[in-house]
Each structure stands twice: as C-alpha cells, then as structure tokens.
Amino acid sequence: MEQNAIAQHSLITPMKSSTHPVRVEAIHDEAPGIRSFVVARVDGAPFGSYEAGAHIDVTGPSGIVRQYSLCGDPDDTHRHVFAVKHESASRGGSRALHEHVKIGSQLTVGVPRNRFRLAPRASLHVLVGAGIGVTPLVSMAYRLARDAAPFVLHYFVRSEQHAAFLPLLRRPPFAGHLRLHCGIEPGDLDATLGDFLAGCDADAQVYTCGPAPFMDQVIDAAGRRVPADAIHFERFAADTAHADARAGIDATQTTGAFDLRLARDGRTVHVSADVSIVDALASIGIEIDTSCGEGICGTCMVDVLDGEPEHRDHCLSQSERASGKTICCCVSRSRSPALVLDL
C-alpha cells in the first residue's frame, strides 16, 4: 500500500486509488446466476497490465461499491473482465449489475489491487476453486500458461452446466491443465482433495477460492502436505462471519482501549473500545483509504513498527500475521497497550 507523509499536524493519508469511467462492451452468461462483464475505459486509454489474482472496486448503477476479481488476461491492457454472481440476498450490488447493466452502460472501476498473488517459484502451482471462486484462478491460469509454469486447475462445480468459463478453460492453453470435479458431495471432498494433493512436494504452492466451508477443507488438506506459507486463499465478503467463527473471533466484541503512536507524524491518538482504528485516525484528520470495511481487500493496511496487533482480517497470510508488521485498520485492534504505526 502506498503512503505519503505530510508535515506534523497536517493530513497524512495513503494515496487514494484512482478510478476510471468505463463502458460495458460485452456481457456473457457464464453459468446460471453468473454473468461476466467486459469493460473498457471511456476515454479509450489502456488500463495497463495487472498482477494475476487482482481485484477491482466496481461502482454499479445503485452507487454501491463491491470488489470483484479480474478474470481476463492480465496482459490485455485495453479491457477488464470480471464476473458477478447474482446473490439472492443481495443488498443491491450484484442485483443491480445483473438487472440494470446493459451493453453500453457506464460504470466506475478502481485500479487493480492484489492480496492473492502467485508465488514467484514453485514445483507445481495447484489452483483449487469452486463456483464463482474460479474467477481469480482464471487470471492466474493465463499468467502461468504464458510463463510455461507447471500448474493444474481443479474446478469443483455441481454440474458442467454450473461451471463458469468452461468453454474457455477447455481450449488451449488451459485444456491440458483443467481437472473438472462435478457433483462431489461434502463428505467426499476431503478424499478427493487428498488424492490430488498427495502428489505435492514441499515446493508446491496451493491457491484456493470459493465458499468458506469448501476453502476450509482445502486449507486443512493442503496443510497436511505443504508448509502453511505455501497456501494462499481469498475469501468473499459474505464469508466473514464463517471465517470469524473458525478463527475464534467474535466480531461483536472488541478488545479494550489502546493508543496509536504515529512514528512520522509524532502524535498519539487514543482508540476507545467501540471505535475502529480508521475512525480514530479520522478524528485527528488522518484518512486511511478503505474499501470493503470487512478486512477482506487489504486496502487499509498500514505497517506496524512496534506493539502487538490483534488481527481480525481475512486477507493477511499466516506468516504476515505472525510477523506483526502490518495491520488492517478497518477491523483489527491491539493486544498491547499501544501500537506504533508507520504514519
């Protein structure tokens, strides 16, 4: 995350993400309830390339901002592709995109951000997705195929009819890497995962995205075969309650008050038990860029110089958590009486 420091007592803020007005060039029904959108900048300028696994903020017709994984070719600088599942309990984000967006409609998108990166080297990259969770894995498959890196994509769906992007994934350069798993019952999932993860050595890297219970089983199965820092995952915002429960976090409870000391600014701000770090900093004129507000996207990460964070996010890796060197300001707190932030 980029930050800039201003003189003491003036505004200190991470650099704001720029946005682009875009026009919808194409819409495809990829599977029941899943629709992909191809967008290009209204001004005709290129987007630039992005890292495989990245996501963008999309502001739809309702004005609601949601994060969606990019699932096109990262080297295609003229268009972005993202897919949206029409959620039955939608608060207006996915519903508006499905029901009101047509070819020619204009939307606003942010610049790509990434907390779900490919490791630079691996004996094998194992991509494991379910349902709409395949979307960031598609962009990874593009990159790995381009680099001739060893990879396999295991895609779990109810049936072929429910497999988004299946025609694409069955064509070169992906066809030889795809393993489609249809109709696997939850009770049989662990055995299926064990069968293909058994071939992983310690230098393999595993990436997973999908519904929370599915991802939990993948993470547990992979953890018996590869080091923890070789397992990478991305959760949906809707999965935060499940992830909290699994991690033993009660999101309705807060830790006690603590202080934030700002290393570059020189000030200290008190964070009471019912106030977030983001809000506490805002009270003294320091704006931290946020997006999801649920510890999913990593937009509000700030470096920690001293103190012990209490991590409540769902985007940091186990090694990042253990290091205590960064914190997601929207949801996390402090176990120590004070945190020193690089602000």
UniProtKB/TrEMBL annotation:
Q: What class of enzyme is it?
A: oxidoreductase
The domain of life is: Bacteria
Q: Which residues belong to the signal peptide in this entry?
A: none
Listed GO MF terms: vanillate monooxygenase activity
> Which Enzyme Commission number(s) are on file for it?
1.14.13.82
PROSITE patterns, A to Z: 2FE2S_FER_1, 2FE2S_FER_2, FAD_FR
Instruction: Enumerate the CDD domains for this protein.
Output: fer2, PDR_like
Q: Which PANTHER family match?
A: CARNITINE MONOOXYGENASE REDUCTASE SUBUNIT (PTHR47354:SF1), NADH OXIDOREDUCTASE HCR (PTHR47354)
What is the protein's given name?
A: Vanillate O-demethylase ferredoxin subunit
Per the UniProt record, the source organism is Paraburkholderia silvatlantica
> Lineage of the source organism?
Bacteria, Pseudomonadati, Pseudomonadota, Betaproteobacteria, Burkholderiales
